[in-house]
Write a structure and sequence with these properties.
Helix content is 31%, strand content 16%. The strands form seven sheets. An eight-stranded mixed β-sheet has the order 8-5-9-1-10-15-4-16, with helices on both faces. A two-stranded antiparallel sheet has the order 2-3.
C-alpha cells in the first residue's frame, strides 16, 4: 500500500489516490486480490457490446411498435413513418432511425413477468427474478458482472466490463448503473462505474474545479505517472497496488477518454450529456473493453424527466417525447453509423432497451409536480421492443410481432435470457458455462437460446 506520507503528497497536489478506487467500499487492490484468488476463464474473441439501457421502460407504442389503426387511447399522439427498409416503420420523431434501418434490427416481442422497475432490471439484465432483501439489487449476477468474470481484459490496464451514466433514484436506494450488479457473488466481480472524464465513481480525489476540465484531468494523469516514476513509489507497492496504479495511468485508458483526438464534427454529432458517454463507450470497446452499459436518461438533460418512466403523474408523454426522442434519435444513429463507418460492425454489438414496455392504454391524471392533467402510460412487462445493431448479425429486419394493442407477442416471443445468450455468443463466452453461487452450487450463466434470426 502507499504509505501515509506518499498518500499525503498525492492528496496535496490534487492527485488521484491510486489505492482508494472503491467499488461499494472495496478498494481496487482488494478487488484485484479477490479476483486473483477467484480466478477467471479467458475468452479470446475480439468482440464487444455497448448496451444502451433506457431506465424506466420506454413505450413501444411511441418508438418501435406503433399501432396506427388502434383506438385513440391506445395508439397515442404520434404516427409511424416508413424507413429505408420495407416493413420497418418507426415513430415519426425518429427520422434518423428511418434512414439507418438497414443497420439495425428490431425485436418487438420481448416479454417477461416483472412489472416493478428494479425487479424488472434484475429480470432483464440477469435473466432471473428476485431482489436482495432490503435492496434494489438483483439476487443474480447481471450481464456486466458475468462478462467481467468470464472474460479477462484483452488490454492491460482496462477492465473487461464497465458501467457509465448513473441512475439517480432516491435517498433510500442512492445511485447505480443497471447491468453491473454482482448478485450472490463477491463484490470483486462488480464492474467499475466510470464517467466521461475517465474517473471511476469512487473515492478517487481530483481538485473539484478541474473535474470538468478534460485537458486538466489528462495533465493530472501525466503528473501522477511522473511522480510514480520519479519517486519509485512502485517499488514499495505489492503486485495489486501496482496494478491499481497501472489501471489509472495506462496509456490505453487515458487515450480512450481523450476526446481531443476525435474529429470535432463527430463529437458535435454525438452531442452532450449521454451522447458523450456513447462516444467514450465506442472508444473503450476499440481499446479493448468487452462490455459497456450506459444508462440513457429520459429527458433532454439527465434530470429533465424520471428516466423513461412515463406515468401520467410523472410526465406528460405527448410533451416529453418531442423533446426526448430527437436527442435519442441523434445519439443512437450517430453511434450506429460511426461503428459501421469505422468497420467495427462485426466487432461491436449495440443493444438499446429498457426493463419493460408501457401499457397499451394511456391514462389521464393530474401530474404530481404540475397539478395539471397529463397523459401517460404505466409499467407493462407483457411486451417491449429492443433495437439491435452490428455484431456481424443480420440487420434490416423485424423479429416477432405483437397484437393490435402492442400488449403481448403473437409471433416469436423472446425472453431476456435469449437476448443474453445472443450477446454472450457474440462475445465468445461458452453458453454452457456454470459459475458457483454463494453456496458453491454451479449455476448456468444463461438458460436462453441465441436468437436464430440474428445469427
Amino acid at each position: 500500500m502507499l504509505n501515509i506520507d506518499q498518500q499525503a503528497r498525492f492528496s496535496r497536489r490534487g492527485m488521484l489516490h491510486a489505492g482508494a478506487l472503491a467499488f461499494g467500499g472495496l478498494s481496487l487492490p482488494s478487488l484485484l486480490r479477490q479476483r486473483a484468488v477467484a480466478g477467471s476463464d479467458s475468452g479470446m474473441a475480439d468482440t464487444s457490446v455497448i448496451f444502451l439501457f433506457l431506465h424506466g421502460g420506454p413505450s413501444q407504442l411511441e418508438t418501435y411498435d406503433l399501432k396506427p389503426d388502434a383506438s385513440t387511447e391506445v395508439r397515442g399522439p404520434f404516427r409511424p413513418i416508413p424507413s429505408n427498409v420495407p416493413g420497418i416503420d418507426v415513430c415519426e420523431l425518429l427520422p434518423k432511425h428511418a434512414k439507418s434501418a438497414h443497420r439495425f434490427s428490431l425485436i418487438r416481442s420481448c416479454t417477461h413477468g416483472d412489472g416493478g422497475h428494479f425487479e424488472a432490471h434484475g429480470r432483464f439484465m440477469s435473466g432471473n427474478a428476485g431482489l436482495k432483501a432490503g435492496t434494489f439489487e438483483s439476487t443474480h449476477p447481471q450481464m456486466g458482472a458475468i462478462v467481467g468474470r468470464c472474460l479477462k481484459s484483452r488490454t492491460r490496464g482496462l477492465p473487461a466490463a464497465v458501467g457509465m451514466g448513473l441512475v439517480i433514484y432516491n435517498s433510500q436506494y442512492g445511485e447505480y448503473v443497471p447491468g453491473i450488479g454482482e448478485g450472490y457473488w463477491s463484490s470483486a466481480w462488480r464492474p467499475p462505474i466510470v464517467t466521461t472524464t475517465g474517473l471511476p465513481n469512487s473515492t478517487l480525489t481530483v481538485a473539484a474545479e478541474r473535474l470538468d476540465d478534460r485537458t486538466g484531468l489528462l495533465r493530472q494523469f501525466d503528473q501522477m505517472r511522473r511522480e510514480v516514476d520519479q519517486k519509485r513509489v512502485m517499488d514499495s507497492m505489492d503486485e495489486f497496488n501496482r496494478t491499481a496504479v497501472e489501471i489509472l495511468t495506462a496509456d490505453k485508458a487515458r487515450a480512450a477518454f481523450d476526446l481531443s483526438k476525435e474529429d470535432p464534427r463527430l463529437v458535435a454529432q454525438y452531442g452532450e450529456e449521454w451522447g458523450r458517454n456513447a462516444l467514450v463507450a465506442r472508444r473503450l470497446v476499440e481499446a479493448g473493453v468487452s462490455f459497456v452499459t450506459i444508462s440513457v436518461p429520459g429527458g433532454v438533460k439527465a434530470m429533465d424527466a424520471p428516466g423513461w418512466d412515463d406515468h401520467a403523474i410523472n410526465i406528460d408523454l405527448p410533451t416529453i417525447m418531442p423533446l426526448r426522442l430527437p436527442v435519442y434519435d441523434q445519439v443512437v444513429t450517430t453511434l450506429i453509423n460511426d461503428i459501421y463507418d469505422r468497420g467495427l460492425d462485426k466487432k461491436v454489438l449495440v443493444i438499446a432497451a429498457g426493463e419493460f414496455g408501457r401499457t397499451p392504454k394511456g391514462t389521464l391524471q393530474p401530474g404530481t409536480a404540475t397539478g395539471k392533467l397529463q397523459w401517460g402510460r404505466d409499467h407493462w412487462p407483457g411486451a417491449q421492443s429492443i433495437l439491435v445493431s452490428g455484431g456481424g448479425m443480420r440487420m434490416g429486419q423485424v423479429i416477432g410481432a405483437t397484437d393490435g394493442q402492442a400488449a403481448y407477442p403473437v409471433e416469436r416471443p423472446v425472453d431476456p435470457q435469449d437476448l443474453m445468450a445472443t450477446m454472450y455468443r457474440h462475445l465468445g463466452i461458452d453458453l454452457t458455462t456454470h459459475i458457483p453461487d454463494a453456496s458453491g452450487r454451479p449455476i448456468a450463466i444463461t438458460t436462453g437460446t441465441p436468437i436464430r434470426e440474428l445469427i
